[in-house]
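Translate sequence into structure tokens.
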Amino acid sequence: MTASAPGAPLLELVEVSRHFPAGEGVVVALDRVSLTVRQGEYLAIMGQSGCGKTTLMNLIGLLDRPTDGTYRVLGQDVAALDEDELAALRRDVFGFVFQRYNLIATATAAENVELPAIYAGLGRRQRADRAAARLERLGLGDRLEHRPPQLSGGQQQRVSIARALVNDAAVVLADEPTGALDSRSGQEVLALLRQLNAEGRTIILITHDPQVAAEARRVVKLHDGRVVEDSGDTATADAAAGAAEPPRRRLATPDLGEAVKMALRSLRANLFRTVLTLLGIVIGVASVVALLAVGNGTSQQVVDRISAMGTNLLLVRPGAPGVRTSGDNASLTPEDAAAIQALDNVASVAPERSGGATLRYGNRDYATQITGTWPGYVQARDWELAAGSFFTEVDVRGYAPVVVLGQTVARNLFGGDDPVGRYVLVNSIPFEVIGLLAAKGASPMGGDSDDAAFVPLTTGFMRVFGSQYLRTITVEVADVARIDETQAAITALLIERHRTEDFQIRNMASILDTVSETQGTLTLLLGAIAAISLLVGGIGVMNIMLVSVTERTREIGVRKATGARMRDILLQFNAEAVVVCGIGGVLGVGLGLALGTLAEQLGVPVIFAVEPALMAFGCAFLTGLVFGFLPARKAARLDPVVALSSE
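Result follows.
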């Protein structure tokens, strides 16, 4: 901005008009008004209601733009300025004193006074000191922390004056400053304005009261939007005639910390509504954290169970591919198992045949599953012994009546006693317990793996099952990298032996890969469900923020009148949305962890990970940015004069 020449006007209106649309016509609020104001003048603009006084004040204070004519501030034509440049002039040149005070009800007196200094980019300590000094000067040093509802009308007007002075404004625009005050408070305000003018400030007083107008050294009367009388010639006014000093450009970057502070104050003022808004975000984030933890835990449990069986296994079962059959199918025999044992890359083979049986020890009976197999079973299944030994090839060939018990069977028959060396009856046939298997836990296919007993395959055929067919042949491969090659070799061998494909082979490594893929799909599905709830919470945030913009339209007008630019308003309302979502994100993560822990205590498998919590919080933060933007943009685009006139 260039400096004006010595003696040049501070403000200059040339043939300025302001028209407003009214149905199919227009209302002429100002009609070709020309007015010049020099620095240090005390000017009263007087007229009855509806004559255009307030419209003229709005134009002078850059709250509105003229329809026609030219308006210059410090020699600069305001028509060439954008919204942010106008905001900078309002901040640095003008101070507003409104009839209805226009204080922010949720802010203290000091915070209200600091408002223009915030938008001027002053530091926190500097603006706090300025606000305290201005209020102290106006006799409100003991009211710094009082909010507007705790102040009288006169005190609120003095706070408004202090706010107008905090940036050392050259021009004070006072719109009916005594209209809402009693006579004593009104006189105090007028005395303050006289004092400010005596210090060299330009005072423009808007009033309809002749007694108030008499305070000014120059009176301009309006009627039907036109100047009908001007008591003084600005060229010879007894005001200071020096050149108006242009405002210095200040770096006025938005203060994020201050925006967050104002956001918290606003949210605290509408606590119940804030809690309801938080609820949607909290539920969404908690859903993401808890559901993904449970989903990961459940999926990992399935993977662990399959991994416990071994990922280097091939399971050969009877029946043609795609045909579900029982273990009585005669397509697999022990001879098939022996032939597979001779193949390359086969580490061990365990043919299996199972059936139900009742075991008895003393007066205790227990029904369980009996499996006949070969000694290679424990190697193939990676199952260790807790006591004793597993049966041998000699036991298989000799049809030995021996049995190895799982932990569940041993516990039910023997309690805490060692079962090794004792005899149990299997379907009334005595078997010697030669071994006790280590605890295995849950079966990959469901059920209890430890609820089982094992006998030599030949003994089982003769004494338990009756028929000599296999239900499964478990094949352990030596090199898992060649498991597909081994599977193909087994397939070729059995087709050659059976002359048909009357068997099925399950590759445990492939099953694990499939389960892992399913796990990823399940996690994605659970995450999508949780994200939907977060999206719903975000929509709730946007709705609440839109309501907030509507309710706080006058506050937005006050902020713009005190120098807030569009990006300041945008930052303010976006900060509120981000603060809500940020707090909701933190609470949601905490709630999600708590729900996951509770589920874990109830026996549900849970795996907590940092990534879902960070993702959920990040999504909540992003939700605030995205869904807060539209309401914030709406607030930033409000016309200041329209916003100030809202109820």
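Note: DSSP finds 20 helices and 20 strands in the chain.
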